[in-house]
Amino acid sequence: MTIGGVRVPHRVLGMDRSMALHDFRVAQYLQQNAASYDAVHCWPGVALHTARAAAAAGLPALREVPNTHTANAYEVVAKLCDELDVELPRGHSHRMNPGRLKREEAEYAASSALLVPSDHVQSTFIDRGVPREKLLRHRYGFDAQAFRPRPERAPGPFHAVFLGTVEPRKGLHTALDAWRRSQAYKQARFSIYGKVVDGYRKTIDNYLPMPGVTVYDFTDDPAAVLASADALILPSFEEGSALVTYEAQGCGAAPVVSTAAGAQCEHGVTGLLHEPGDVATLAGQISRLIAEPDLLARLRSAVLGQRDQLTWEAAAERLEACYEEARAAMR
Predict the structure, then answer these.
(1) What is the pLDDT of residue 7?
(2) Which of 14, 163, 173, 214 is the most buried (most CB within 10 A)?
(3) What is the spatial distance between Cα 79 and Cα 260, in angstroms, rounded to a whole number?
(4) Is the pLDDT of residue 35 over 90?
(5) Is 90 exposed, middle or buried (0-12, 13-18, 19+ CB in 10 A)?
(6) Measured on CA atoms in the order 8, 11, 15, 17, is the torsion positive or negative?
(7) According to the model, what pLDDT value does residue 252 have?
(8) What is the pLDDT of residues 52-99, one digit of tens each?
(9) Residues 208-228, buried b or exposed e (16+ Cβ, 10 A)?
(10) Where residue 153 falls among pLDDT bands split at 50, 70, 90?
(11) What is the per-residue pLDDT across 205-240, written as a single tens digit (0 to 9) for each?
C-alpha cells in the first residue's frame, strides 16, 4: 500500500483490513485483465473476491492451503490446550477465531481447487465434505544451495534437534517425555531452537534440566543447525507440511516426526513416523537410532538419495502440473 509513493505499513489499517483491501484490489484488476492470465493462485485471507472474479472470467482459482482445514486446526489445538491447561495468547494463529473460520470456509467454497501439501491435510478436508477432486496434491521444498549435507556424520553422540515455534501443537512436550523414557539423555544430545509461546513453558520446564537437553532462541542459521544433526524430531499434533522437514532432509538429517507433520518421507525408509501424542512409539524410535547406528546410516543414505525430489525446483514442477489439472477441469 502506498500514498504519494510512500509505503504505508500494514499496522496502519491492521493486517485483516490490509488483506481485505489487497483482495478487493486484485479482484478489480482481474476483472479488467483476465485475458492475460491462465490461472489464479491465491493465499489465505486474500482469496475470496479474487477467486470469485476468476470464476466470473472462466479462470481456475487455486487457493493455497498451508495448513489443515481451519476447523480441524482450531479443534485439535483447543483440545490439546485444554489437556495441557494452556491458554494461547490473544492473536495467536491457532486460537479460536470464528470470523476467520467463516472467511476461510468461504474462500474454500469460492475457489475452484485447493492446493493441499500433504495427505494429512487432504484428509481433514475430505472429512469435512470437500470433494476429493477439488483437492490437488502439491508439495513444498527447500533451497538446495542453502541446505546442504555435511560430507559425513560428525563424531560424537547421537544429536537430535527440534526447530520451530515452541507451542502446544508442535508437540515438544511429547518429544521431551519420549526423550526421558528412552533415557537418551544419558548418552545423546537434544538441541531445541525456537521461541517459547507464553503459557507453554510450564508444560516443558520439568524436562529441561535433563543432561544433554539445551534450549536456544531462534537461530539465524538453520542450515548449520540441521547439518549438525542426525535427526529432526517434530512430533506435531497439527501441521500442514512443515518446511523444516524438507530442509532437514536436504541436510541429511533423518525426520523422526508425527504423521501430522506432513513430512515427505516413507516410514522405515527415509524417516520414522509415529501418531500424534504416541510417546511410547517415539521413545522406542529414539532408542533404536541410538542403539542401531546402521539404521541411522541407512536412513541418512535414503534421505540423501531422494534429496533432489524435495527441492523447490521439484515443487515448482508439481505446482505447474496442478495448474494444468485445474485448467483442464475448468474446460
Answers:
(1) 85
(2) 163
(3) 15
(4) yes
(5) exposed
(6) negative
(7) 96
(8) 999 999 999 999 999 999 999 999 999 999 999 999 998 888 999 999
(9) eebebbebeeeeeebbebbbb
(10) confident
(11) 999 999 999 999 989 999 999 999 999 999 999 999
Q: What length does the chain have?
A: 331
Judged on CB neighbours under 10 Å (0-12, 13-18, 19+), 183 is middle
Amino acid at 279: V
Mean pLDDT score of the chain, rounded to an integer? 95
DSSP 159: E
Per the confidence metrics, is the pTM higher than 0.90?
yes
Backbone φ and ψ for 266, nearest 5 degrees, come out as -105, 130
CA distances from residue 96 to 25, 127, 275 in whole angstroms, order as listed: 28, 20, 24
Q: How far is CA 257 from the centre of its chain?
A: 12
Beta strands in 204-319 (DSSP E): 213-216, 231-234, 254-258, 272-274
Name residues whose C-beta falls within 8 Å of residue 318's C-beta, 6 or more positions apart in sequence: 138, 139
CA angle 94, 97, 102 (to 5 degrees): 115
Question: Going by C-beta distance under 8 Å and a sequence separation of 6 or more, which residues neighbour residue 40?
Answer: 30, 50, 51, 54, 59, 60, 61, 62
End-to-end alpha-carbon separation of the chain, Å? 35
Take residue 114 and report the three cell numbers written for it. Answer: 485447493
197: left (phi over 0), alpha (psi -120 to 50) or beta: beta
CA distances, 141 to each of 53, 147, 161, 262, 306 (Å): 30, 11, 19, 12, 12
Rounded Cα distance between 83 and 52, Å, is 40
